[in-house]
Amino acid sequence: MKNNSSFTSLTIVLLIALSAGCAGNKPAHADRQKIPIETTQSNKMALQEEFVGIWKGRLSAGVQDLDMSLKVTPLDAYLDVPAQNLKDFKASSLSYERGLLVVEFASFGASMEARLGESDTLDATWKQGGRSFPLSLERVDVASLNGANESEGLKSGYEGLAVTFKSDQIGVELAGTLRLPEGQGPFPCLILISGSGPQDRDESIYGIRPFRDIAEALAAKGWASLRYDDRGVGESGGVFAGATSADFVRDALGAYRFALADPHIDPKRVGLCGHSEGGYIAPAAENALGGVYALVLLAAPGVSGYEILLDQSADILAAMGASPSDIAAAAAVNKSIYDMVLTPGALPSDAIRTTLSKAGVPENQLDAQIAALSDPWFMAFLKTDPATVVGKVKSPILALNGSKDLQVRADKNLLALKDAASKAEVPFQAELLEGLNHLFQAADTGLPEEYSRLTPRFSPEALDTIITWLLALPKP
């Protein structure tokens, strides 16, 4: 979590990429920078009972407000910041003395000091980057934290078959859920492919479960679906760290081949559905397969990763009230650094460090920035070319995006996908859905910081659009 004094340093380099939930100014793969520091024995002391529990509040940190929650046990503490896709992040140390609780997060140079307030509250101070911010936290119960009003319309009984299957990459076995409709089958099936960052099979983030919503809606209309945990996540094997889009394409191929061979599934009617970065992986997998029954692209990129990140920064800064000059300054720094990342040869770490430092990034955050820039995923994502991939597809395409998506600029990317599909000469339908954000929630601003405060439900309008289009496809 970064608390910078200017819009420029706020969005330099470590941007949101294409995660299901926004990573804020933390990279989508920032779990790779988590430094596991064992709590020392001297700090493993039982806390006063009053501190133990789950606390939730909002941090006003310069130009942004961040919802956060802190789970405190007698021995450890865990931080959640939904707008930055940070969940169950273990504190490096936890101590209590003379009524003061001190929680430290060494990997991003932050700490929190808190005392008990009145009426089940904590009066706290968040410290990071040489600055301090007041923070008030209220005790909440587990149901409130995880979304007591989580996705509507889910059945309480059967929710699918637990399955495992092999990726096209040798040695990687994935786990997922095959959701079947009622009846005998065989059924048409849609493979659900997640966005960037480590995602579970539901694309879960704070009660929002986009893929589960989609799976249940499909089942109600006679379609099966297969959704799966990313490699190294949940029950799936393999290692997430170091994986790139090319690896995730291999995983999607394994999911497709599994569905094709399952006796419940009609092998002539298996499609691919990708959300965010998954909207690039799906057509890339289609290219490798030589065609599928259908492609559904949700908030999918139509332009390069390089361009996606620049637009993302500009759009989020604009929504936060940044001036045109601040937005231009951030873009100039990002372009300079992206160009250095893409220069053949070893990463010019010293030059990047100098550029970041001049732009206002605190010294204690530079190592994490450099580590993120050297991530194979980040370097590969900058070079992605969705238009070329979509230009080679042989399958009909439905592309949806929300008008308030600040992670993948809707009009620009839908138009790029339309142009690419035209070159491919395949049926193409695009829908710009008014008022929806990157997670297809009904949104106010579209800013990632509000995701956790909105109704945790995938838009019924979007679901209806997907199902109507699928049902209208000609049967082979």
Give your account of this protein's structure.
The chain is of the alpha/beta class. The chain has 13 helices and 17 strands. The chain has helices spanning 7-10, 142-146, 210-220, 245-261, 278-289, 305-319, 324-342, 349-358, 366-373, 376-382, 386-390, 410-424, 460-471, and strands at residues 53-61, 64-72, 77-81, 86-90, 93-97, 100-105, 110-116, 121-128, 131-140, 161-166, 173-179, 187-193, 224-228, 265-275, 295-298, 397-402, 428-433. It has a 9-stranded antiparallel beta sheet. Strands 10-11-13-12-14-15-16-17 form an 8-stranded mixed beta sheet, sandwiched between helices. Strand 7 (110-116) and strand 8 form a beta hairpin. Helix 4 crosses helix 5. The longest helix has 19 residues, at 324-342. It is globular.
